[in-house]
Amino acid sequence: MVKAFRPLTLHDALEIRSVQNTIVFAGGSDLMVRYKAWCGTVADFPEDVIFIGHLEELQGISMDNNTLKIGASATFTQILEDERVPFYIKLPVSQIGSPSIRNIGTIGGNICNSSPAGDTLPMLYALDAKVTVVSKSSTCTIGINDFITGPGGNILKQGEILKQITIPIGDYNRFYYRKVGQGRSNTISKTSFFALAKTDDTEVQEVKIAFGAVSPTVVRSLESESYLKSINKKELPDAVDKIKEQYGNLINPIDDLRSTKDYRKNVSLLMLKDFVLNRLTK
C-alpha cells in the first residue's frame, strides 16, 4: 500500500527522501494526470508520495542584484501576481492551463516533469536559468539545460529536492512568445517559441531565442544568437534565410496525436521569421 508523507519543514522532507523512495508531489497537476486511475478512484502511484507544496522554504519569490529567485513550489498564480517578476517571464506562465491549474501548478513541477512541451522551459532556457538541488548533505546549483536530460528525464535523484530557480534579469525591449495548440490555454503545446532582445535605433545588441516541443529538449542556438547580435537592422531581411536554415537543422520534432513533425517545424520557422522581421526591425 502506498504511504503519504507530509513533512513540516524542508529538513524533514530531506530526511524522509534520504531513507525512503518517494515521488515528490508539489501541486500535482502533472502527477495526477500521469498516474490517473478510473474516475472516482485513488491515483495509481507506484511509490510512496511526499507532499512538499506547502513548505515555506520552497515558496518564496525575491529579487537580489538583478537576479530573480523563485522557490520551486511557488505556484504559477503567485508568479503572475508578484510585481517583481518581469513581464516577459509572466508571458508563458499566463498561458499555462486554466486559472485552477495555475493556482496549484508549480514552476518546480513544470521543470521536474521535464516534458519537451513544458510551458516555462523555453523561457527558462533562453534566460540561462539555474536550478538549485538540495539533499540532506549537499547543495548544487546548475544550468537548467544540464538538469533536464531528455523527455521526462532529469538528473534529480532519490534523496534530492529541487529547491529554487534563479533567473538573471536583463534590460530587454523586444519580447515574443507564441504557444501553438488546440487553444490559447488549457492545452498542451504543439510547438512554442520564446524570444527577447535588446535593440537600439540601428542594431540588435542582444538576442535570446528558444523553441519548445520540437526536440527531445528545448532548442537554443548560441551560434545563431551570436550571429544576430550586433547585426544592423537593415541587414535582418537578408539574414532571415540563414537564421531559418540554422534553426531548421536543430529542430527535430516528431509525429504524435497532437500534430505532425512537418507542421511543428514549419510553424516554428514561421514564428522565428515573424520575430526577426517584425520585432527586431522595429
How would you summarize what this structure contains?
This protein is α+β, with helices and mostly antiparallel strands. The chain is built from eleven helices and 13 strands.
How would you describe this structure to a colleague?
With 282 residues, the chain is an alpha+beta fold. Helices cover 32% and strands 24% of the residues. The chain has helices at residues 10-19, 31-34, 76-81, 87-93, 99-104, 107-113, 121-126, 144-147, 222-228, 236-248, 261-280, and strands at 4-5, 22-25, 48-51, 61-64, 67-71, 130-135, 139-143, 148-150, 153-154, 160-168, 174-180, 191-199, 204-212. α10 runs antiparallel to α11 (261-280). The termini are far apart. The model has no long low-confidence stretch (mean pLDDT 94).
Question: How many E-type strands?
Answer: 13
- What is the C-alpha radius of gyration, as a whole number of Å? 20 Å
Q: What average pLDDT do the residues reach?
A: 94
Q: Name the helix and strand elements from N-terminus to C-terminus, one letter apiece.
A: EHEHEEEHHHHHEEHEEEEEEHHH
Fraction of residues in H or I helices: 25-40%
Which strands sit side by side, in order, in the main sheet?
A: 4-5-10-6-7
Report strand %.
Answer: 15-25%
Shape: globular
Number of helices: 11
Please describe the biggest sheet, giving its number of strands, its sense, and whether it closes into a barrel: 5 strands, antiparallel
The secondary-structure class comes to alpha+beta
For the record, give the distance between the C-alpha atoms at the N and C termini, rounded to a whole number: 60 Å
The parts where pLDDT drops under 50 for at least 5 residues are none
